[in-house]
C-alpha cells in the first residue's frame, strides 16, 4: 500500500464509505461538529494543551508520561479476570462468552462474562500517571509525538460526559462456522458466536477531546494506539495495536470510555480508557489507549491493510476496502447440543444485532429450516446495542433437532444462508444451525 496509486484508491474507497454513511443520515459534517463542540461551554473546564500556555497544563509534558515499556503499563497475565468454564471458552489470550450464560441476564452483559479479545495480554496501567498523548498534522501547531498535547484521567473525567449502550463484536465472531457449516478453511481464533457483548459505556466524546486539542479542518484520520505490548506476527513486530478511524466517524459517535456498566473500566476491557466505536468491527475500539495521532492524510497500519479486509478468490489482491460496520446476526441463549425436555413447552430466547441499526424482526425455525415462526422482540431497542427475542416451542419427538434464527435489521438486511467466503473468516453473518437434543 505504498504507491500513490494504491493510496489514492484506498482513500477514494474510504471516502465512498463516508458518503454512504452520510446518505443514511448518520454522518455530521466537520463544520457542524466543530460548532457543536464549541457550544459545550468548555471554558469552565480545565483545558488541554494546544491552547494558550496559561490555560494549558499539558503541552510539553510528554516526559512526565513514562515511555512505552517503562510503564505506566505493567504486563499481567493474558487475561486478569477469572474465566470460569461455565461462562467462557478460552482460546489462548482470548475468551469467548458462552451464550447459555446470557440467558438470565438483562440487556447488558455483566463484566464477569464479557468476552475478551487480546492480541497479546492485558497490561496493568496506573491511572494516576497515565496520559493520553495527541499529536499530528491534523492538530493546530502540528504537535509531534515527542511533544504532544496531553490529557490526564482527571482532566478527562472533568469534561462533559456522555453515556451510550453499544455492542463490541470481533470481526471474526462466528468464524468457526465457515469451517463447520460451509466446509471452508479460515485462519484465526475459532470463535462460535460469543465474541460479542453489549455494555453501557461512559466517557467523553472523542470529538470533544479533538476539539480541545486543536482539531484542524483538514484532519483526515484519527489513529488511537494501545499501551499493550507490541503485536508480533510471523516473527515480525507490527508495533502497538492501532487502526485509523476516518475523521467523519471519529466526530460522529466515538467515545473515549472510562466506565463500563457503571464501573471504572476493568483492566481486561481497557483501563483506564478505551475507544468505543459504535457499530463497527471490534478492532476499531482500541483498549488501553495511550496515543492518538490526528493526520492530514490517510494512515495505514497492519490493522487496516493486511488484516480486517476481505481476502480470497472473490476479492482484489490487496483485499476489499477496510471493514467497518458489523453485519446483522442472531444467536440462541443455549449451549450447543443443549438438552430440552420432550413434550414440554420450552421458552427459546436469544438476541439479534446489526451494525446497520436496530432489529426489525427475527424468524425462528425448530425443524432445520422447513418452517419459520416470528419471534417476539422484547426489552430495550437500542440501535447500537442488540434486541432480545423469545419464542415458545413444545418439541413432540425425541432426538436431534436443528434450531435456526434469522434476523432482519432496520435497513432490511437479513441473514443469508451462506456467508461470503474470505480467508481470514470475518463477518460470518449467515444463519447458524444450532443443534439440540430433545429427550
Ligand atoms: N490495545 C488493544 N485494543 C484492542 C485489542 C487489543 O488486542 N489491544 N483488541 C481489539 C479487538 S480485535 C476486539 S474484538 C476488541 C475486544 O474488546 P474486549 O476485549 O473489551 O471485548 O478490542 C479491540 N481493541
Ligand atoms: Mo476483534
Report on this model:
- Helix content is 13%, strand content 28%.
- The protein is of the alpha+beta class and 439 residues long.
- The relative contact order is 0.15.
- A hairpin with a 2-residue loop joins strand 13 (255-260) and strand 14 (263-264).
- The model is unreliable at 1-71 (pLDDT under 50).
- The strands form seven sheets. The protein has a five-stranded mixed beta sheet.
- It has six helices and 25 strands.
- The longest helix is centred in the N-terminal third of the chain and has 20 residues, at 4-23.
- The protein has two domains: 7-304, Oxidoreductase, molybdopterin-binding domain (Sulfite Oxidase, Chain A, domain 2, Alpha-Beta Complex); 329-438, Immunoglobulin-like, CATH 2.60.40.650.
- InterPro entries: Ig_E-set (IPR014756), MoCF_OxRdtse_dimer (IPR005066), Mopterin_OxRdtase_euk (IPR008335), OxRdtase_Mopterin-bd_dom (IPR000572), OxRdtase_Mopterin-bd_sf (IPR036374), TAT_signal (IPR006311).
- It comes from Virgisporangium ochraceum.
- This is Oxidoreductase.
- Keywords: Metal-binding, Molybdenum, Oxidoreductase.
Amino acid at each position: 500500500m505504498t504507491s500513490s496509486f494504491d493510496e489514492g484508491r484506498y482513500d477514494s474507497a474510504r471516502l465512498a464509505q463516508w458518503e454512504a454513511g452520510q446518505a443514511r443520515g448518520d454522518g455530521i459534517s466537520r463544520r457542524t461538529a466543530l460548532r457543536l463542540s464549541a457550544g459545550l461551554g468548555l471554558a469552565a473546564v480545565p483545558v488541554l494543551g494546544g491552547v494558550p500556555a496559561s490555560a494549558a497544563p499539558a503541552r510539553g509534558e510528554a516526559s512526565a508520561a513514562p515511555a512505552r515499556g517503562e510503564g505506566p503499563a505493567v504486563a499481567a497475565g493474558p487475561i486478569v479476570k477469572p474465566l470460569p468454564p461455565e461462562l467462557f471458552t478460552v482460546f489462548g489470550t482470548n475468551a469467548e462468552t458462552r451464550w447459555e450464560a446470557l440467558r438470565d441476564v438483562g440487556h447488558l452483559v455483566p463484566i464477569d462474562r464479557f468476552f475478551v479479545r487480546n492480541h497479546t495480554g492485558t497490561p496493568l496501567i496506573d491511572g494516576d500517571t497515565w496520559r493520553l498523548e495527541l499529536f499530528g498534522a491534523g492538530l493546530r501547531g502540528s504537535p509531534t509525538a515527542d511533544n504532544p498535547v496531553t490529557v490526564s484521567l482527571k482532566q478527562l473525567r472533568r469534561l462533559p460526559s456522555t453515556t451510550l449502550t453499544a455492542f463490541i463484536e470481533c470481526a471474526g465472531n462466528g468464524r468457526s462456522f465457515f469451517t463447520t457449516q460451509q466446509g471452508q478453511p479460515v485462519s484465526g481464533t475459532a470463535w462460535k458466536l460469543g465474541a460479542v457483548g453489549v455494555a453501557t459505556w461512559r466517557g467523553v466524546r472523542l470529538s470533544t477531546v479533538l476539539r480541545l486539542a486543536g482539531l484542524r479542518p483538514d484532519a483526515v484520520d484519527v489513529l488511537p494506539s494501545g499501551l499493550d505490548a507490541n503485536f508480533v506476527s510471523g516473527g515480525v513486530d507490527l508495533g502497538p495495536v492501532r487502526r485509523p478511524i476516518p475523521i467523519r466517524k471519529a466526530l460522529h459517535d466515538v467515545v473515549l470510555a472510562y466506565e463500563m456498566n457503571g464501573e471504572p473500566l476493568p483492566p481486561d476491557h481497557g483501563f483506564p480508557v478505551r475507544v468505543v466505536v459504535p457499530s463497527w468491527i471490534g478492532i476499531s475500539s482500541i483498549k488501553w489507549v495511550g496515543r492518538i495521532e490526528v493526520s492530514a492524510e490517510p494512515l495505514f497500519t497492519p490493522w487496516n491493510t493486511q488484516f480486517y479486509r476481505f481476502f480470497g478468490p472473490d476479492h482484489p489482491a490487496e483485499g476489499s476496502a477496510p471493514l467497518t460496520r458489523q453485519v446483522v446476526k442472531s444467536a440462541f441463549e443455549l449451549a450447543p447440543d443443549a438438552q430440552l425436555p420432550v413434550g414440554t413447552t420450552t421458552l427459546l430466547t436469544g438476541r439479534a444485532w446489526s451494525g446497520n441499526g436496530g432489529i426489525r424482526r427475527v424468524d425462528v425455525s425448530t425443524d432445520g429450516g422447513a418452517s419459520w415462526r416470528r419471534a417476539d422482540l422484547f426489552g430495550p431497542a437500542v440501535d447500537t446495542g442488540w434486541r432480545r427475542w423469545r419464542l415458545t416451542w413444545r418439541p413432540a419427538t425425541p432426538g436431534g433437532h436443528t434450531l435456526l434464527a434469522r434476523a432482519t435489521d432496520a435497513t432490511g438486511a437479513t441473514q443469508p444462508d451462506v456467508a461470503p467466503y474470505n480467508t481470514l473468516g470475518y463477518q460470518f453473518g449467515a444463519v447458524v444451525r444450532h443443534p439440540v437434543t430433545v429427550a
